TrEMBL record:
Organism: Saccharopolyspora terrae
Source domain of life: Bacteria
Name the record gives this protein: Lactate utilization protein C
Pfam family, one: LUD_dom
Stretches assigned to the LUD domain: 110-207
SUPFAM superfamilies, alphabetized: NagB/RpiA/CoA transferase-like (SSF100950)
C-alpha cells in the first residue's frame, strides 16, 4: 500500500468514527468506570499516594494547621512567606508574628525572593496522589505556586475524591487548573532526576479534618 493510500485509509476511518460519534449522544456512553474503584479509606489512600511522589504529607488537627505550617517553614529555613488572598486569616495572624509575609500581588521579580508559598487546594485525588488547584480563594495565581522553592499545600479531608473523573466533577471547567503530583521534577538524557526545574523543589502537604 502506498503512503497516500495508507493516509486515505486512516483518514477514512477517522471520518467514519466522527460520523458515528455525532449520532451517539454522550449520555449513551458507558461510564461505569467512574464508580468501579471505591476506596475504603480515601484520605489514607491519598496521603499514601502523595508520599509516593516524594512529597511530605502530614495529617494534622483542624486547629493545628497554622502551627504545622510554621514548623514546616521553620524546618526548611524559610523566612519570607506568601499567603494568597482568601486563605484563612488565622494563618496570617499566626505566621506574621515570626515570618515576613509577602504581598500576594508581588510581581515575578519579588516572587523570586519568596521562600515558601502556602495555599489551599480545590481537590485531592486519592488514586493518583494528585492535588488540583483552580486558583480560587486561598490558592493564588499560577506564578505564585511555581516560583517559590517550597509549596505548603493545605488540603481538607472533604476535598479528597476517589479518582480523576470524580475530581473533575467537582471542578469548574472554565477555571484554570494546575495538577500537582509531587515536587517539580524532570530527568535528563541519562535519567538522572532533577527537582525544582519547573516549579517548587519541595512539596509539603498538610491534610486536616475540615468537615
Amino acid at each position: 500500500m502506498s503512503s497516500n493510500s495508507a493516509r486515505e485509509a486512516v483518514l477514512g476511518r477517522v471520518r467514519r468514527a466522527l460520523r458515528d460519534a455525532e449520532r451517539t449522544p454522550l449520555s449513551a456512553v458507558p461510564r461505569d468506570y467512574r464508580t468501579a474503584r471505591p476506596l475504603a479509606d480515601l484520605v489514607g489512600a491519598f496521603c499514601e499516594a502523595v508520599a509516593d511522589y516524594q512529597a511530605t504529607v502530614d495529617r494534622v488537627a483542624d486547629d493545628a494547621v497554622a502551627p504545622a505550617i510554621a514548623a514546616t517553614a521553620r524546618a526548611a529555613g524559610a523566612r519570607r512567606l506568601l499567603i494568597p488572598d482568601g486563605a484563612p486569616q488565622a494563618w496570617s495572624d499566626s505566621l506574621g508574628e515570626e515570618f515576613e509575609l509577602v504581598d500576594p500581588a508581588a510581581d515575578t521579580a519579588a516572587l523570586e525572593q519568596v521562600d515558601a508559598v502556602i495555599t489551599t487546594a480545590a481537590v485531592g485525588i486519592a488514586s493518583t496522589g494528585t492535588i488540583v488547584l483552580d486558583h480560587g480563594p486561598g490558592q493564588g495565581r499560577r506564578a505564585a505556586t511555581l516560583v517559590p522553592d517550597l509549596h505548603i499545600c493545605v488540603v481538607g479531608e472533604s476535598q479528597v475524591s476517589d479518582d480523576v473523573p470524580a475530581a473533575l466533577s467537582r471542578l469548574d471547567p472554565v477555571r484554570p487548573t494546575t495538577f500537582i503530583s509531587g515536587p517539580s521534577a524532570t530527568s535528563d538524557i541519562e535519567l538522572n532526576r532533577v527537582e525544582g526545574v519547573h516549579g517548587p523543589r519541595t512539596l509539603h502537604v498538610l491534610v486536616h479534618p475540615d468537615a
